[in-house]
């Protein structure tokens, strides 16, 4: 990078408070001036104030050894071939002259008048060489960046222009360096930053038709807080934007087909009480819609809180049955009360029996649906009796020998592995096949991320009406957090959390502050979910990263195949793999 030493001129680094002496001065006076001003040299001038030579400390020794006067020394020994340099010459030129001529100082002359002096020594020479090497390294680094880099000083003069800038804007370095940037780009971002002293981030523009560039410009300040320069970086995002547009087009095609598919499903399998875009949920709806009008038993499996009872109710509502929907939780009934709960009892059947007896759940659900939740917890003795009812469709109240015919549709549900229980002799195999004429499995909520927003809105509406709290707004970030939580408690947990958020909301505004702390601590957001959804550069980078990673996995790391599929050069792929650490 052409910074200080490569672009500064002699006038920027010269010393102007040099000491002048004249031919007729006394040697002691000259020497005293050198001592008092801490100088190793003085400039000897003639009567017309033109330089005659340079007198140094080593020359003092020569005079004393020779025993001659200062004026005699000037006449006999002073080198009259004084090497001078212009104030507009580069600092590098001055350095090179000093090294090649083996001199430690050069007077600076402008219009035959000395206006300063440039000094140096072996230490500085070594320093300059090292700095030169460092600057050459910087040049190589910046010239190999993917971004175009431009540095302007506080006057808007271009001080650096890398190779990428040359190719991007078709302006050669030799043509623009040391020139006012406004001559080439009247609306340059660097000029805006110099004027407003505010940085510019990721502004998209089209410098050449068909080429899109993301530009950023940053003001630079010295230690005194003074604006000294502006550096801008321009990234060619044409390829990325085209890829994004192509992906967006394909995404819209997929969304269109998805909507068409869901509309078709919804038209034929409409369960108003069930919300779901998830493929497994739609398939489950399709299955139960077909079986709902029949008398076939249905077994619903899935983890606790996945909505098994909601599905059972939906089956009942779609069945056309005129009887009641009756739900019973098998894990909540003491073993000795199972029979009386399911089949009922007559007066005096046992101590404490209600006078006139009690109707059982089977009888109450006759003509309708009996939902046996947590069927895996039913005692084996009771399983035998349930099997007999399913076979004969006849029940007997406890304490009675009178047979009661029942037309009860059975829908069972469990969160346990019944086949495993069968192997452990904890569940009857014949009952399993009676219950599982049709079996559906409901996925956990963490596998239904696309449904979480709709479910949340449903619960917000329900709880809002229930609690009498009007919801005025919901932050979009709330949905993002809810979508990315693991939901071990599934839909039931989600509903409870929504109720808490509504109750604790301020003025009906649902914000992140209303989300329980354990959810905020438990969310698992990846990089593309943390990014600002309106930051174009980050969105583009995220799409690039995910697309390249997916293709690399698809081709088992074969870069040549990956570059071909991505329709980019292999060198471009190498750069992006390094950039995204893939």
TrEMBL record:
CDD domains, sorted: AAA (cd00009)
Keywords: ATP-binding, CBS domain, Lyase, Nucleotide-binding, Transcription, Transcription regulation
Record GO terms (molecular function): ATP binding; lyase activity; sequence-specific DNA binding
GO aspect biological process, one term: regulation of DNA-templated transcription
Keyword ATP-binding on entry: yes
NAD recorded as keyword: no
Classification via Pfam families: AAA_lid_14, CBS, HTH_8, PAS_9, Sigma54_activat
SMART domains: AAA, CBS, PAS
Domain Sigma-54 factor interaction: 274-503
Domain CBS stretches: 14-70, 78-133
Name the record gives this protein: Formate hydrogenlyase transcriptional activator
Organism: Clostridium magnum DSM 2767
